């Protein structure tokens, strides 16, 4: 609109200058008074139109300038909000990275503990197998001892019976 108004103003000024030249040429050529007055009236009208166009152009320029300032302020506010949001997101990212690093360290610790527990379990399984074998050997030894004990008891019983038979005979 501003460019259109400027173009209209330039056109009006050009027309005005042309009409002024024409008027001067006609005056020089002895233009009749009535035609001169008509040209002067037209000139005044054109000058009036030019002034109105200049005022309109000035108003439009001022409005455009105010709107440009408002738009620039809005853009600055939006930019500031975007910067603040980016900073907030950056802080959230740093916090998330810190939490992630802490969890990763915890997982590494847990994995190391799990490895140690696994080795301990394997050692316990080995000891358990040795104890089971020792228990089995002890049970076999106990059974063997029980058998020997039974044999000894049977022998002791047989000896008692024999002594019981021999003792009365030797006393008589």
Automatic annotation (TrEMBL):
Recorded coiled-coil stretches: 36-162
Compartments it resides in: Cytoplasm, Cytoskeleton, Microtubule organizing center, Centrosome
Lineage per the UniProt record: Eukaryota, Metazoa, Chordata, Craniata, Vertebrata
Protein name: NINL protein
GO-annotated cellular components: centrosome
This protein's UniProt keywords: Coiled coil, Cytoplasm, Cytoskeleton, Phosphoprotein
Keyword field contains Phosphoprotein: yes
Any Gene Ontology biological process: microtubule anchoring at centrosome
């Amino acid at each position: 609109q501003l460019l259109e108004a400027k173009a209209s103003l330039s056109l009006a000024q050009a027309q005005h200058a042309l009409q002024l030249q024409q008027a001067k040429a006609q005056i020089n050529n002895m233009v009749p008074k009535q035609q001169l007055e008509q040209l002067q009236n037209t000139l005044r009208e054109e000058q009036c139109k030019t002034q109105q166009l200049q005022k309109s152009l000035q108003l439009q320029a001022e409005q455009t300038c105010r709107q440009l300032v408002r738009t620039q302020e809005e853009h600055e506010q939006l930019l500031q909000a975007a910067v603040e949001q980016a900073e907030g997101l950056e802080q959230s990212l740093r916090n998330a990275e810190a939490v992630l690093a802490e969890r990763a360290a915890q997982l590494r610790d847990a994995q190391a503990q799990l490895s140690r527990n696994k080795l301990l379990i394997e050692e316990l399984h080995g000891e358990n197998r040795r104890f089971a074998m020792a228990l089995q050997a002890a049970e076999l030894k106990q059974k063997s001892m029980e058998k020997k004990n039974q044999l000894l008891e049977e022998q002791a019983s047989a000896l008692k019976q024999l002594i019981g038979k021999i003792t009365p005979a030797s006393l008589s």
